[in-house]
Amino acid sequence: MLDDRAKTLLKALVERYIAEGQPVGSRTLSKASGLDLSPATIRNVMADLEELGLIASPHTSAGRVPTARGYRLFVDTMLTVRPLEVEAPPEVAGQLQPDQPKRVIANAAQLLSNLSQFVGVVTAPRKPSVFRHIEFLRLSEHRVLVILVAPDGDVQNRVFFTQHDYSQSELVEATNYLNSHYAGLTIEEVRERLKGEIDALRGEIAALMQAAVQAGSEAIAESTEDVVISGERNLLQVQDFSSDLGSLRKLFDLFEQKTQLMRLLDVSSRAEGVRIYIGGESQVVPYEELSVVSAPYEVDGQVVGTLGVIGPTRMAYDRMIQIVDITARLVSNALSQK
Questions:
Q1: 129-148: per-residue pLDDT in tens?
Q2: 145 Cβ partners below 8 Å, 6+ apart?
Q3: d(CA 68, CA 279)
Q4: Is 294 left (phi over 0), alpha (psi -120 to 50) or beta?
Q5: By the 8 A CB rule, do 207 and 245 touch?
Q6: Which residues share a beta bridge with 134?
Q7: pLDDT digits over 202-220, tens only?
Q8: CB neighbour list of residue 324: distance below 8 Å, 6 or more residues apart
Q9: According to the 3-state scheme, what is the secondary structure of 16-67?
């Protein structure tokens, strides 16, 4: 637990370091904090903060910089974020018109990058795995084409091989049965119902239904573009990274592979509101120099994806929270309009 004096000094140190990017000394801190304390007293408090792991002394500098723990305490207990305007400025809102969903996502990533001057990331909406219509067509012996039509008109085709050589009349019977009993359900719901009904169904229909479920799952997985990234080159201008080519290489590997990004953003999608992840404090963010400010977005009240800003730990968190929050709202509104 920190007393009020230590909290005031830590807050002043973090804010000054975010603004200037230079280690903060006791004399500078005395002026920034507004406290009437002697340099010796400030040095003692800074020593206590360093012992707690909240600040650190880089190299031989007399100044101090925040650690991941220091940033976390600052973000959780000291950060003041001004309330957002009810409506976004027209020039911002105009970039996310309810057009094609893919265009909304791409524009959102670019908007996040432009506003933050860091990297904007948006996971594409998870498409609901619902089919409106399904059809089986015999291609040749033991080869069947399954056609899945989604409620939005999206069509997915899959060819699969069967042990039994189905006639077209058998395929039509299976098509009619599946459409009359299962249309409108998600692939997951069909799969669950099949578990209980499989014994009651004729063998050929059961096998075709299982194949259809598998084809639907594969189609959905392949049709989803994982994550859209914009503004990676902005990090070349960030002082914290530009002097360390090793760090830059690791960051660009992160954006190229996307796996860790997806894992991080998936965690964010299960949280409410804006979340901040600071590198070095956990395994969630893989690099110490990196922070992520993210928020889920919705379509018709259901969370379908996540967006955020990726930048250095030395970022203006209050501004990033506003940028991410308002962009999440704009994306939700754009994608919810039919």
A1: 677 888 889 898 888 888 88
A2: 136, 137, 138, 139, 157, 158, 159
A3: 7
A4: beta
A5: no
A6: 148
A7: 666 777 777 777 766 666 5
A8: 112, 274, 293, 294, 295, 307, 308, 309
A9: HHHHHCCCECHHHHHHHHCCCCCHHHHHHHHHHHHHCCCEECCCCCCCEEEC
Residue 253 structure tokens: 């590997």
Write down the H helix ranges in the chain.
Answer: 4-20, 26-33, 39-51, 68-73, 90-93, 101-116, 168-182, 187-197, 203-223, 239-242, 245-257, 259-269, 317-336
* Rounded CA separation 209/202 (Å): 11
Phi-psi map region of 297: left, alpha, beta (phi>0 left; psi -120 to 50 alpha): beta
CB 242 within 8 A of CB 236: yes
Question: Which residue carries 């914009």 as its tokens?
Answer: 230
For residue 272, count CB atoms less than 10 angstroms from its CB and return exposed for 0-12, middle for 13-18, buried for 19 or more. exposed
Q: What token pair was written down for 127?
A: 């498409």
Residue carrying structure tokens 């939005």: 152
Task: Find all residues with CB under 8 Å of 169, minimum gap 6, and list them.
Answer: none
203-223 helix and 187-197 helix, angle to the nearest 10 degrees: 160
- Residue 25: is its pLDDT beyond 50? yes
- 14-33 burial string, b = 16+ CB within 10 Å, else e? bbbbbeeeebbbbebbbebb
Question: CA 277, CA 126: separation in Å to the nearest integer?
Answer: 23
**Amino acid occupying residue 83:** P
What gap in Å lies between CA 33 and CA 192, rounded to an integer? 61
